[in-house]
Design goal:
Helix content: 25-40%
Shape: globular
Oligomer: single chain
Number of helices: 15
Radius of gyration: 22 Å
Distance between the termini: 21 Å
Strand content: 15-25%
Strand order of the largest sheet: 1-2-6-5-3-4-7
Structural class: alpha/beta
């Protein structure tokens, strides 16, 4: 990770860690970098945060001042930006969003001309420009100054693309959608209505500050209750920029990203649509998922946390399905990044084609109890490199033995250390996490 760019873009509290000056400079650099040999063409989308508007205008100012033409999708999803980049041959795209973070945070996600996360070396160059480590970029003048175009039509084409992905009508299916008061509010209901579903929607009235507030994929309890109360067949919860999806079955049980990968992976394998019978997961995936995969004859590979790394592995090896427990799921036949609404459509396909409920399809997976505790720290690198902390992690791993595992890592977007234990019993998991968390507090690292 760089100084500003983490695993999912440049993220921080608006006008504190991430300011309008930062956004302007990102725009200035990208307009110049992609416009060296031709007039750069850049597309921008944003989520519903109040600060997204000011960052949009700052980026536009920087891009056009460097000579780039800018196309605005307005409120839309991250995967829609990726889709438009690829379908309309943009040089790059920018999504203004802090994903599942609170409304007061925001982020700048830059996608390259393939619709994928920007290369680390280019992020490094942007950081050098922000810090004044390179020569000043010349301003465009005269007819070379860039212009801005309303491009809502690009978002509408993406909606049409999603509708075309579906293999059959959703008629008579009662589907609940939790749009997290975010980007999905502008798209998801339109898709499900067009496919004939009886669509029940909650949290689709964004006001700039209610995005992700007690709703969406990170606060799924409300959707669980909603599905049971209304007797729905299934429910889907998205995050702020709709690049992730979690589901709720007809009984109100949470179907997380791991179980989604099992449901979709086993269906794809049965149809001969799972390349190399392999699914790409991350180190956060549950041991219970792997046991279910083995029973199904599905192989798996493991990457670092982040759909960026999942995507890289999939592209390098020609795999068709991969994702994260958190709900970032990539279907490489249809997209190059995680796409929450697409994921919900593929779950519907598995249910409809197999004439089954989601609970039945998920039944073979027995999830091991998992405890994830985040602790806010003063300096992540100090904690990661402390030998006493490393010894505590080793002690926790020894305690769990073959009955579980530990995961100890820093957040890529926040000043947090994540300590996770997974084991055959909750008691084992709790003890494993406590060994590490207690040591971090004892050493005085907690912020």
């Amino acid at each position: 990770m760089g100084k500003y760019f983490g695993t999912d873009g440049f993220r921080g509290e608006a006008n504190k860690e991430l300011t309008v000056e930062h956004a302007y400079k990102v725009g200035r650099f990208l307009g110049w970098y992609y416009g060296k040999e031709h007039k750069a063409k850049v597309v921008i989308g944003k989520d519903t945060r109040r600060s997204s508007y000011m960052f949009e205008y700052s980026l536009v100012a920087g891009l056009t001042a460097s000579g780039a033409d800018v196309y605005l999708l307005h409120v839309t999803t991250t995967p829609s930006v990726s889709y438009v980049i690829r379908s309309d041959e943009f040089d790059c795209g920018i999504m203004i969003s802090a994903s599942h973070n609170p409304f007061y945070d925001n982020g700048i996600k830059v996608l390259n001309g393939e619709g994928q996360k920007l290369e680390p070396e280019v992020e490094g160059l942007i950081e050098d420009y922000i810090d004044g480590k390179m020569e000043e970029i010349p301003f465009a003048v005269g007819e070379n100054i860039g212009r801005t175009t309303d491009y809502a039509a690009g978002r509408n084409r993406y909606i049409g693309y999603l509708i075309a992905v579906a293999t059959r009508s959703f008629k008579d299916k009662k589907v609940g959608l939790d749009c997290a008061n975010g980007s999905a509010s502008a798209i998801a209901k339109n898709v499900f209505d067009a496919l004939g579903a009886r669509t029940y929607v909650i949290n689709n009235n964004p006001d700039g500050i209610n995005i992700n507030t007690d709703c969406g994929s990170t606060h799924i309890g409300r959707l669980q209750a909603f599905v049971k109360e209304h007797g729905l067949d299934v429910g889907f919860a998205y995050d702020g920029d709709a690049d992730r999806c979690l589901a709720v079955d007809e009984n109100g049980r949470i179907i997380d990203g791991d179980v989604i990968m099992y449901v979709c992976g086993s269906y794809m394998k049965s149809q001969g649509q799972l390349p190399y019978d392999t699914v790409v997961t991350t180190v956060m995936s549950n041991m219970g998922l792997y046991e279910a995969f083995e029973q199904e004859g599905i192989r798996y590979e493991t990457t670092a946390v982040g759909d960026k790394y999942v995507g890289e592995n999939m592209r390098a090896n020609g795999y068709g399905l991969g994702g994260e427990e958190s709900g970032h799921i990539i279907f490489s036949k249809h997209a190059v990044t995680g796409d929450g609404i697409l994921t919900s459509l593929k779950i519907m396909e598995a249910m409809l084609e197999q004439k089954s409920t989601l609970s039945k399809l998920a039944e073979p997976v027995t999830i091991f109890p998992k405890l994830l505790q985040n602790i806010r720290v003063k300096d992540k690198d100090t904690v990661l490199n402390d030998s006493d902390i490393k010894d505590a992690v080793a002690k926790a791993e020894e305690y769990l033995g073959t009955e579980g595992r530990m995961l100890f890592r820093a957040s890529g977007t926040e000043p947090l250390i994540r300590v996770m234990a997974e084991a055959r019993s909750e008691e084992l998991a709790q003890k494993g996490v406590a060994i590490v968390i207690d040591k971090i507090k004892e050493k005085g690292y907690e912020a």
